[in-house]
Each structure stands twice: as C-alpha cells, then as structure tokens.
Design a protein that fits this description.
The relative contact order is 0.15. Helices cover 26% and strands 32% of the residues. It contains three helices and eight strands.
C-alpha cells in the first residue's frame, strides 16, 4: 500500500481558489470525461457541504463532500466520491471512505448515512456497511442505487 493521504477538511467558504479549482478539475476528470457524462457538476450543494480532500505529494488524489441532513437525503450523505486515475489501486478509495465516515460522525454524531452509488460499486460500499436501499435507477445514463449505512 502506498503512503497515506494528507487530509484537508473545509467548509466551502474556507476553500481557497486553488483548492476549489483542484476539486472541480478532479470531479470533471472522473465524472464528465472518464465516465462520458454531460452534466452540470456544480449543483448548488457545494456551498452547503464540507469538503474532504486527500493529497499525495501536493496533488489532489481523493475527494468527497459531506452533505448535511436535508440537502440530498433526510440523513447526512457522502457524495462526489472520486479518486484520481493516477491514484487508483493504492488503497486511496478505502482511505477516503473511512475518513469520510469519520467526518460524518464528527459533524453529526453516530448517524445513518445515505449515498447515491453507482451500481458497479455496490460491493465496495457494502464493505463499509452500506446496504442497498432503493431500486436501480439511471442517472446520467449510469445505473445507480441508494445505499444506507445504519448507526453502528
């Protein structure tokens, strides 16, 4: 396993312009270019969220946003979960999810967490205690499911 990531955890207002640019670039590389989805990534939820960024050698390798209850779901949520292509296969996704769950618990206490997950990642999210909680639905032509993690 490669070196652990150095984490930054900030509100939208705390992000500087370079951090915000790096976050939006990573999300566009993963969700728009790689997955060939023509969609508006800036959905108005970033300003209400906390932003978790993982860096290796000064480069953004992993990102997730932590959404409060009532923004996407009635429960806190983790969204825009992304690992840079050059950071894959190094355990960064596992590290990102573990850190994201810790941050949800830091902000909201032990809580149910709900995510909208791409169907092909169901097994990955299941390993963190998430269970499918909706039927399959299409979002940007990609099969998704809602998954819920109960209080542990």
């Amino acid at each position: 396993m490669d070196l652990k990531l150095a984490w930054k955890f900030k509100t939208f207002e705390e992000l500087d312009t370079n951090e915000l640019y790096s976050i939006l670039r990573l999300r566009n590389e993963v969700f728009v270019v790689e997955q060939r989805c023509n969609y508006l990534d800036t959905d108005g939820k970033d300003q209400k969220s906390h932003h978790l960024s993982g860096y290796a050698d000064g480069q953004l390798m992993a990102f997730a946003r932590i959404l409060p209850p009532g923004v996407s779901y009635e429960y806190p949520s983790i969204g825009r979960i992304a690992v840079a292509a050059k950071g894959r296969g190094k355990g960064y996704g596992i590290e990102l999810l573990n850190e994201s769950i810790k941050k949800v618990e830091f902000l909201y206490g032990k809580s149910v967490i709900r995510i909208g997950a791409q169907l092909y990642l169901k097994k990955f999210y299941s390993s963190f205690g998430f269970v499918q909680s909706s039927e399959i639905y299409l979002e940007d032509n990609i099969e998704h499911i809602e998954m819920t993690r109960q209080i542990r």
